[in-house]
Amino acid sequence: MSSIFITGSTQGIGLETARTLAAAGHRVVVHARDDARAADVRGALSAATVVGDLASLAGTRAVAEAATAAGPFDTVIHNAGLGGGAPQRTVTADGLELLFQVNVVAPYLLTALMPRPARLVYLTSGLEAAGRLRWDDLQYEHRAWDGMQAYSDSKLHDVLLAFAVARRWPDVPTDAVDPGWVRTRMGGPHATDELPQGADTQVWLATATGPEAAAGGRYLKHRQSLKANPAAYDEAEQERLLSVLGGITGVSLPVA
């Protein structure tokens, strides 16, 4: 039996991942943004719950502390994320752009603060292929807001983060997963993939044995290893992202 922590797991792909793993007999700890969502997930799934909002640095630190107390974990799945539908740029209390905070800063900070699990999984999106690395204006402070481009950028950053962690921590198999275009509230009713398919690769990784268990540094979709945005393989760009995130959070990612 494995122990797994899944961020953003009160609905959609995260909840389906948690439900499938729990049904297979694994110990699952879910994460809810607030008490109302925690109550909802407790009604749908018998699992321990960590409550905290990833939309702030303080909230993310609190989640890291609570999750650490609920661990240790064999696998941590960074599933939480916001879509690109916001009509305007939103700034958090920390002065960070909200989508960037939730999709990129939060998984970085959780990774840096929590004890290393045996495996790490970061959810991305096929839209990472359209992502751009704009270090001069990472959080859309000086350019017109484009929610879908900002989302694509954040998903490219997630792949860079996964590849950077895989390289820095070779003893922790780490992958980026594109779950596909899944019929959820975020994916919408016209999406092509059913919910179980969107959770399948994460479940497979969390329960992997043999060669799959030892692998890492991959961009996966439907259990297949694919080529990510070429920028994601640039080690200098990976290090630049780690440096930026370390500066924002005040926490550096430990070196192996």
Explain briefly what this protein structure is.
The protein has 256 residues and is of the alpha/beta class.
Topology:
Layout: E1 3-6, H1 12-23, E2 27-32, H2 35-44, E3 48-51, H3 57-70, E4 75-78, H4 98-113, E5 119-123, H5 147-168, E6 174-178, H6 195-206, H7 211-214, E7 218-221, E8 224-226, H8 235-249
Helix pairs in contact: 1-6, 3-4, 4-5, 4-8, 5-8
Low-confidence runs (pLDDT<50, min 5 residues)? none
Distance between the termini: 27 Å
Structural class: alpha/beta
Strand adjacency order, main sheet = 3-2-1-4-5-6-7-8
Rg of Cα set: 17 Å
Sheet of most strands: 8 strands, mixed
What is the molecular shape?
globular
Measured as a percent range, the helix fraction is 40-55%
Mean pLDDT: 95
Query: What is the class in the CATH system?
Result: Alpha Beta
- Total number of helices: 8
Report the portion of residues in β strands: 5-15%
DSSP strand count: 8
Give the topology string: H per helix, E per strand. Answer: EHEHEHEHEHEHHEEH
Walk me through this protein's architecture:
The protein is an alpha/beta fold and 256 residues long. The mean pLDDT is 95. Strands 3-2-1-4-5-6-7-8 form an eight-stranded mixed β-sheet, sandwiched between helices. It has helices at 12-23, 35-44, 57-70, 98-113, 147-168, 195-206, 211-214, 235-249, and strands at 3-6, 27-32, 48-51, 75-78, 119-123, 174-178, 218-221, 224-226. α3 packs parallel to α4. The longest helix has 22 residues, at 147-168. It has a single domain (3-249), classed as NAD(P)-binding Rossmann-like Domain (Rossmann fold, 3-Layer(aba) Sandwich).
